[in-house]
Amino acid sequence: MFATRFAPSPTGYLHRGHAFSALTAYSAALAAGGRFVLRIEDIDATRCRPQFEAAIYEDLAWLGLSRETPVRRQSEHRADYQAALDRLKAEGLLYRCFRTRREVAEAIASAPHGAMEVFRGAPLAPDEEAQRLAAGEPYAWRLSLAAAERRLGGFEGLFFVEEGEGIVPARPQLGGDVVLARKDVGVAYHLAVVVDDALQGMTHVIRGQDLFEATHVQRLLQALLGLPAPVYRHHRLLTGPDGKRFAKRDRAETLRSLREQGMSASDLRKELGFG
Ligand code: GLU
User: In this predicted model, what pLDDT tens digit does every residue of 117-153 receive, in sequence order?
Assistant: First the structure.
């Protein structure tokens, strides 16, 4: 059965761009007689706030979007992400990375010209790693693209289906050796998303063009974890009068402030092309 989702992070109030995304996914589910699922992507406890989560429910209800219950909140499912991480670790696909953000940026900048636009690293030598572990240094787990490539015998056979476009070759190289378990929160976006999309039976992932590169990485994770590949649709991004994308920092454009300014949900739906 057709199933798609809207998966915001409660790190700010939803804005017009989120409304467009949610309405796009919702109407696709409605047209297909399928499921529409809301997922709260709240693994980053340092940035997520309960009032933003409460506002998501309120804003979606205002827009008239009904959803399945219970809503999956990522913070309540760490065991699922851990199981996936353990599996990738056991297959030698992950390595510990002790570098700081700045060190990662420096490694990219100092690579021979054009050799590295995204980070690609390698496990430390066992004695250095043991020393740093003993010293209690924090580390992230990164996916080794090199190990993944060996495991799959190359990325040539890897692709995803983009609705309306057909088959798109997946280029997980775009993401480099992505972090799958962050130093601070123990899991990371790409991993949680592929695990959840599979567990929630998503047949379609409908989201903004800004996540197109993420899809390449996520397709690789699905292949490594033996998870089904949904069909993707990356919709256009809304821009404001200044031509810039809406962002959570644009307070005046949040759905709650539009509501406070007297805009009705049906006006907004019409404006966004869902009238
Ligand atoms: N949580 C992500 C965001 O708010 C979206 C993830 C997704 O749709 O895969 O940007």
Answer: 899 999 999 999 999 999 999 999 999 999 999 999 9
Candidate of 18, 74, 195, 207 to mutate for ligand 1, largest count of ligand atoms within 8 Å of Cβ: 207
Indicate where the chain has its CATH 3.40.50.620 domain(s).
Answer: 1-76+239-275, 77-199+209-227
Q: How many whole angstroms from 151 Cα to the centroid of ligand 1?
A: 28
CATH-assigned architecture of domain 1-76+239-275: 3-Layer(aba) Sandwich (3.40)
Report the sign of the C-alpha dihedral through residues 195, 196, 201, 202, in that order: negative
Q: What's the Cα-to-Cα distance from 272 to each of 35, 236, 237, rounded to whole Å?
A: 22, 12, 11
The topology (CATH level 3) of 77-199+209-227 is Rossmann fold (3.40.50)
The mean-pLDDT minimum among 14-18, 96-100, 158-162, 241-245 falls in: 241-245
